[in-house]
């Protein structure tokens, strides 16, 4: 007699709005590394010129850990615009619709200045940075690409800019800083290449090592 499979935890969907002063911090990456959950970004809009970044997130994992991650966001001052469990809306600020603005690759933020880089290095202890832009093809909307990088390879991922349409009919873009040891960055990059997602590397962030 085969053992019964334990039921999969019910996913929790949330729409959040991140204030500009946290947009240089790896907020979503920390949810994965600190609480051991999977976080899939199902839509996103983040630009360096707006006061807020918007994300639709799907959380999967231990329910207590998900609750802890949501409390962490609230303590940071991140706005919880909408929360739904198994399709049932638990919390909704309907006066705050998701922005409809769409970015293209050329409109992404410029490279972080050295002051941003040094501040983040001192916090994380991860001395190597790899800057890249990635296209999330519409077939990968249900795949937690960024979350997998954090959980599998132990890196920190900071989202610099993002445009991921909620309609799931168009490809999306992310401008990312990956932080970690060289081998972690190599493995993360190889993982993305195996997914066959279009990538653009910032050569100036590679500090002389070759991928």
UniProtKB/TrEMBL annotation:
It holds the Pfam family NIL. Residues 10-83, 128-202 form the NIL domain. Gene3D superfamilies: 3.30.70.260. This is NIL domain-containing protein. It comes from Komarekiella delphini-convector SJRDD-AB1. The lineage of its organism: Bacteria, Bacillati, Cyanobacteriota, Cyanophyceae, Nostocales.
């Amino acid at each position: 007699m085969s053992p019964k499979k334990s039921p999969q935890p019910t996913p929790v969907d949330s729409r959040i709005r991140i204030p500009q002063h946290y947009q240089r911090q790896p907020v979503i990456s920390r949810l994965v590394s600190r609480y051991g959950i999977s976080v899939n970004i199902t839509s996103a809009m983040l630009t360096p010129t707006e006061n807020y970044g918007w994300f639709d997130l799907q959380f999967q994992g231990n329910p207590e850990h998900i609750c802890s991650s949501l409390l962490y966001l609230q303590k940071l001052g991140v706005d919880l615009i909408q929360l739904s469990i198994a399709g049932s809306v638990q919390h909704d600020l309907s006066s705050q619709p998701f922005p409809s603005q769409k970015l293209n690759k050329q409109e992404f933020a410029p490279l972080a200045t050295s002051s941003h880089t040094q501040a983040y290095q001192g916090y994380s202890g991860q001395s190597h940075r790899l800057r890249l832009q990635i296209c999330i093809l519409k077939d990968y909307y249900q795949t937690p690409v960024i979350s997998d990088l954090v959980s599998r390879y132990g890196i920190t991922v900071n989202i610099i800019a993002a445009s991921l349409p909620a309609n799931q009919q168009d490809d999306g873009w992310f401008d990312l800083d990956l932080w970690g040891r060289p081998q972690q960055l190599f493995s993360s990059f190889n993982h993305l290449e195996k997914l066959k997602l279009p990538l653009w590397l910032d050569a100036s962030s590679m500090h002389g090592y070759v991928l």
